[in-house]
Amino acid sequence: MAMSTMIHNHLPAIPHTGVNRNKLVARAHQEAPVVDHPINGTKASKRAARLAESLSNLLHLHVEPPQRREVMKHYSSWDSFGDDEKHSTPTMSPKQMISDKWREIHGCTDWDSLLDPLHPCLRREILKYGEFAQATYDAFDFDPFSEYCGSCRFNSNKIFEKLGLDGKHGYKVCKYIYAMSHIDMPQWLNRTVHLGDTWSRDSNWMGFVAISDEEETRRIGRRDIVVAWRGTVAPSEWYEDFQRKLEPIGPGDDAKVEHGFHSIYTSKSEHTRYSKSSASEQVMKEVTRLVKLYKEKGEEVSLTITGHSLGGALALLNAYEAATTIPGLPISVISFGAPRVGNIAFRDQLHQMGVKTLRVVVKQDLVPKMPGVVFNEGLQKFDEITGTLDWVYTHVGAELRLDVRSSPYLKHGFNLLGFHSQETYLHLVDGFVCQSSSFREDARRDVALVNKACDMLVDELRIPHCWYQMENKGLVRNAHGRWVKPKREAEDVPVPVGSQPNFHALDKIVESRRLQPVYV
Amino acid sequence: MAMSTMIHNHLPAIPHTGVNRNKLVARAHQEAPVVDHPINGTKASKRAARLAESLSNLLHLHVEPPQRREVMKHYSSWDSFGDDEKHSTPTMSPKQMISDKWREIHGCTDWDSLLDPLHPCLRREILKYGEFAQATYDAFDFDPFSEYCGSCRFNSNKIFEKLGLDGKHGYKVCKYIYAMSHIDMPQWLNRTVHLGDTWSRDSNWMGFVAISDEEETRRIGRRDIVVAWRGTVAPSEWYEDFQRKLEPIGPGDDAKVEHGFHSIYTSKSEHTRYSKSSASEQVMKEVTRLVKLYKEKGEEVSLTITGHSLGGALALLNAYEAATTIPGLPISVISFGAPRVGNIAFRDQLHQMGVKTLRVVVKQDLVPKMPGVVFNEGLQKFDEITGTLDWVYTHVGAELRLDVRSSPYLKHGFNLLGFHSQETYLHLVDGFVCQSSSFREDARRDVALVNKACDMLVDELRIPHCWYQMENKGLVRNAHGRWVKPKREAEDVPVPVGSQPNFHALDKIVESRRLQPVYV
Question: Which end of chain A has the smaller Cβ count within 10 Å, N or C?
Fold first, then answer.
């Protein structure tokens, strides 16, 4: 309590800068008028109309007329949004020195009285960590026809540069983390017996460990180690999450966590190239090394673990292990749209060890209701299956609750994918002032990012949906005019943990097995 | 008859180079084994499974395991297809001199005995014209959020270069054709009163007129004028096609054509910038000019009109008008997947005027069955509605019939879009030997092209589906890190018919009205 008051003192009060939300929402909800179908009348003509409709799908891409809405005067009528002035501003609020209050911002008082209203310095830190979580998606190779499917598209030295994050946040990636994927990888992989040698059909890139540079370290008052966990991609990873089995974690048998998450975090196999050690072992080895390195230099060190969706669940398991292994280290978890992970005892142990957790949750997002949506609310005859109450999954820590309807830039209609998207989360964090106010007028984060992989922005903004895509899905025309997949640059080919990069040897493997329609 | 024999004499017989199709098809039809669902058993767990399934959609892009198939040994096991040798060959058979037999190839004998087996020289010409038809899709601006939606993305001087067709076919574009679009353009266009001044909400780019260069003219034995018509894009254009009303065309009242097609071909309005003259007037003016120009030079001149889907229908109307207007000009139509256009009298008049029509038709494609599928086969009580028989739509000319199942590269499962795709047509033409043989072994056209805008290639080829796409849908990051749509290069901004390009003035219009999130 005393602590909380103290924070409030040296963190100045935040003005409520939001404008009247209701008015905007009311405008935004005006729907497109129903257009009369050009063909109507007889039964036969109705059949023709139906046929025409289904045939319109034949006709390559078709132009979908966006819904008609009123201009949202305060924010984003196209004319004002197209304004050069608006487009010339940086996409982040300026960095502020937080070296004297980093412990509070890092959660040492459970963010008490920093969340509503949201303190600007905390907002900026949440966005920083959230963009690290987003980076694990942006850099991931999703292409099922790529021989590197499931890896990171860039090596650890240039990932931030490639994603435009170099210089922005002042961190450097030290280590990549891999985990057993449990993916049913494309079947053709089985045809070539040794394809596993080149990349792995057993492992997926799951994130990275990064460290703050000198300048950022000065600004934030300590050397900050970040672990960013990637969320789920393949359905099989997700099914694994639904084994409906809590299993013990830690020294006692009280704390229990969901089996699927725990399995991804701890699985390993001698028969793989990237998962001879588990994700848990990889990450803890690197974190322990970094803590030791900087503590020996006399620096203050913190650990911040972040992740979206499944990544948020893994972050919590990671935090539990780190707190057990490295007592006294300030550890925080900033998770976005994460499902519940364990039981009440798990939560209590995390509390006791001093792990601070800030769960950023969009009210309309379904994933944070999981597995609880199945096992807490959804199941009528819950006891018949489980018998005891310590099977109940529970959430951990403080919550920053966001509402899609607070943003005048977003469509508010049901959108399973859009509500869960990490870019939606980051947009809403950027605009959040307090629970009773609406979107921040001076929010600066680029709104276009929201539509990267979904269709959430109102049409007036004229940002295409799902626009984050490679030119021709990576195919290029060779000298003969044929469309081929170029070889990945040698330095971006994943290299097994522990081995030295040997680009020449890898090239030879690729070449001799003709894994790709390679043309040089 | 005598003519047909003569052709056979100086066009040598074609060896049947196809391999046994049945064997390949049998292999290709082996299906992926059914994978057991990880969750099964109780009712509750089934609900969980369903939830998991629907939630897997939440998880960004997901990896779809391709179907398992046997390697297709003769063609495209990945290893042999990845072979450098195969990837180093040109994507077209070498050009042959056809100056002494161009009239037969152009259809003067209705391609009698040239189609089954397909004569290699004719195949090459069909592919040339088919690629012009495809170019009208590849260059079209489909982006509903673009202020140039419905225009050609490139100006006429560089369209072929941008599409990799410069030098390949030896033609030069002389003129773009626009038509009234009848499109319900995105509603936001209405907000800015004068947006119509910059680009047009009334008109769509519908294709081009091109002319053979000196070298190609020597090879093909005459100066060839090509008109390529774009197919349908917007559903509203297609609905228009279904007004189920034949209307008279030409001097008598006997010949009748479908109202929708005719309307697109002939509509104009003083209130538009691009359709003050109709597509008909634009194209006939240019063709007449070119015919006059080269006839006065003493050259032989031909007119070849091509188009896919709706474009094929417009090609036929165009041919009818050209034959009426310019008697004695050799006129051919090469259409791909075109619907029926008119009645029997229309067909007969085309015959009488000497218009030659080669309809390339994929057996599985639905569009060539239209509007017939509604009015000939589909409707039981046909007479009740129409009363007379001259309402019956009918096809015109010779037919080259292709079968999706002839190609071992293609998936054979039902695929409305894939069966109709022009790239599928071109692939099948390239592989066609004769009706009783299977895919040509020495077909050279790049197979990857088939998947440009659909998902028709077997997974072993590892070509992504719908891969023809712009990087980030045209968004680029400006100096501040914001994602914005760059202005189109001034020379690629559409310029109204008859006016001189005035890039500076156009720039000013764009600038002052802030139509785009422009950042320079």
Answer: N
